[in-house]
Specification:
35% helix; 22 helices; 6-stranded mixed β-sheet; alpha+beta
């Protein structure tokens, strides 16, 4: 089956992209060996190809938004830090990076505002505590993720950090693997029942499974932004099989992955070209092992630890959660976290993909004292449901691809919703990406936001696309669009509509994801988007008219039926009369006519009246068939 991959590669790789041409100029090792000289010569001494590509292999990113200052990614396998490592990274941020850092959605630390002059010392300090920045950018293996409570959680069946380290050893420190891939490669290992690490969003995910009484991992391949990884029908029984399988996969991807169109060079596109069955057969052939077919995937549970604030561990102590809104952090705070871990815990800090952290090994006696520290006064153990699972990648201030500010937008919306629609309990996962690249994992959020441009009265301004229904549970699921190009300043009001409905209809203990599946999934995406806008419009105009979603909608997600249903309900609310007493099957009975004059009464909003007329027109040929015909009537920017 390797021949199938070879044929696909030869068909696609008739020409190479510009990045591949840049790679031919020198080796990454040659660029790395010059960093000390660049530090002496200053920013102006760095060649263009190193600024644009080669330094990124070592996590060093030139950022035009901060002239002559670099961003740096610190590789933190599994998000696991001991206190000494955490303190070192924090001190580096304080000394060289304006005391600023981000926790990323790959559970690693991002430093900013670094000068080239400081790079040798920074790299040396990191190396002394066993940390590196290698392979964290461009065409390399990015930071590997696993459960932040790996090895300590009650639901952790297979501790996976050891396997993760063995997988990493295949390439880390080996120059022949530096920049050798066609595109980046994300890897995750999950040995727990709960998915705390977006395991189905990876290029390669090893997911807890059981077959014939043996615990091991099912292999899922091909995840990327907008695409959930698929089951490769491979079960690995132990770490040795997992390493052999991974080695075969990465060698195949290196040798036969596509190198033409950068936008279509991820592993997903190789699978798309040859089929998963052919790739799985090639992996077995390359590894020389007839891996078993897939077992039963056991990672099925949602991650609700952040809603509890602390989680009892398998040794009786607690992991205490700290909410870091949008991952915006500081070196001083990481040093404080390290000190808290040493004083009140067992000296371990774990970062997670929700850009927050845990302090491990806190016993019941020391817990209350820990909660009174300045660190937990600044970073709550349990925050508002809108903050507990909030994710936001870097926006336009720090990322050249960012379209909106993003991190501040995410925080502002969470703050607004906390005031406007306070929730007792509940779980809402809001994920923000500053652009289409999706680093904020918006596709798997309960509510996802993707930065874009929007038009208001002909003027361009910041906007977002809004999605719903993303999942991390079971085998994961990408969300679907409900509103496109919403002006950012109005987005909070539309999401407020959803949260009001969640609060009104929510069952005891029901998360927003569960509410979505029970109530919202009965409606078409267009109907949900329309209702979000309509409720915003009613509040904006001060119109007290209760109209919302209903559990058990029977319109079959048919837009024309939904329009007619909404129209009948609106007509009743506005006039007190039933629109079509004999109507059945979401249309008037033959001969029925609507008294439109009732909509001309004083006090009835003219836009609502126009909308109802379009929804309930007796002539089916003239009646509105799609919500897009009505959205302009409830647009907030009219006012």
């Amino acid at each position: 089956m390797i021949s199938v991959l070879q044929a696909a590669s030869e068909a696609r790789n008739t020409k190479t992209n510009k990045v591949e041409q840049t790679k031919a100029l020198k080796t990454p090792k040659e660029a790395f060996e010059q960093i000390a000289e660049y530090a002496k010569g200053g920013y102006g001494s760095i060649p263009k190809e190193d600024l644009g590509y080669f330094l990124k292999c070592f996590g060093i990113f030139d950022r035009p938004m901060t002239p002559e200052r670099f961003m740096m990614r610190v590789r933190i396998p599994g998000g696991q830090l001991d206190a000494a490592q955490a303190r070192t990274v924090g001190e580096i941020a304080k000394a060289f990076g304006q005391d600023y850092m981000d926790i990323s959605t790959r559970a690693q630390i991002v430093l900013r505002y670094l000068s080239i002059e400081a790079m040798p010392e920074i790299l040396d300090r990191l190396e002394r505590v066993g940390l590196t920045t290698f392979h964290t950018g461009v065409d390399n293996f990015r930071n590997m993720v696993n459960d932040p409570l790996d090895g300590v959680a009650f639901d952790n069946i297979l501790p996976s950090q050891g396997l993760l380290q063995k997988l990493q050893e295949l390439f880390l420190g080996h120059w022949e693997w530096m920049s050798a891939l066609p595109r980046k490669f994300n890897t995750g290992v999950c040995g727990s029942l709960a998915n705390r690490c977006n395991i189905f969003g990876q290029d390669c995910g090893f997911v807890l499974a059981q077959k014939e009484g043996v615990y091991g991992y099912n292999v899922y391949l091909g995840g990327r932004v907008g695409v959930i990884a698929r089951n490769a029908d491979i079960f690995v029984r132990d770490e040795a099989e997992a390493v052999a399988m991974f080695r075969a996969l990465i060698e195949l991807y290196r040798d036969y992955g596509f190198r033409d169109n950068r936008n279509k060079n991820r592993l997903h596109f190789l699978i798309e070209a040859v089929g998963m069955e052919a790739l799985a057969a090639a992996i077995r052939e390359k590894a020389g092992i007839d891996f078993a077919t897939a077992g039963e995937t056991l990672t099925q549970l949602d991650n609700n630890d952040a809603d509890q604030g602390r989680v009892q561990l398998n040794n009786g102590t607690f992991a205490v959660h700290a909410v870091v809104p949008s991952g915006v952090f500081s070196g001083s705070d990481l040093v404080a976290a390290a000190e808290a871990a040493e004083t009140y815990g067992d000296g371990r800090v774990r970062l997670d993909i929700e850009q927050s952290l845990y302090i491990l090994g806190v016993d019941a006696v020391r817990y209350d004292a820990l909660m009174e520290t300045p660190f937990f006064e600044a970073y709550k153990s349990v925050s508002s449901p809108y903050f507990n699972h909030l994710i936001a990648c870097a926006g336009e201030e720090h990322c050249p691809f960012g379209v909106i500010p993003n991190k501040p937008d995410a925080i502002e919306m969470a703050e607004y919703l906390s005031r406007a629609v306070p929730l007792e309990g509940g779980r809402v996962r809001m994920h923000w990406s500053g652009c289409v690249k999706g680093c904020g994992l918006h596709g798997v959020g309960d509510v996802g936001f993707e930065g874009c441009k929007a038009k208001v009265n002909g003027e361009t301004e910041h906007g977002v696309h809004i999605t719903l229904g993303g999942k991390l549970t079971a085998e994961g699921q990408e969300g679907y669009s409900v509103l496109k190009s919403v002006p950012l300043r109005f987005a909070r009001y539309h999401v407020e509509s959803l949260m009001r409905e969640y609060r009104r209809l929510r069952k005891a203990g029901e998360s927003f994801g569960q509410f979505h599946d029970r109530v919202l999934s009965g409606y078409s995406p267009a109907a949900i988007g329309f209702m979000m806008q309509l409720q915003s419009y009613l509040r904006d105009r001060g119109i007290d008219l209760a109209l919302g979603f209903e559990a058990g909608a029977k319109s079959g997600r048919n837009e024309s039926f939904e329009l007619f249903d909404f129209g009948c309900r609106l007509y009743k609310k506005l006039t007190g009369e039933t629109a079509y007493p004999l109507q059945a099957h979401y249309m008037p009975s033959e001969g029925e006519r609507l008294d439109m004059t009732l909509l001309d009464r004083p006090g009835i909003d003219s836009n609502l009246a126009q909308m109802v007329v379009k929804m309930l027109e007796p002539n089916a040929n003239l009646r509105a068939k799609a919500f897009t015909e009505l959205n302009a009537l409830v647009a907030l920017f009219q006012s």
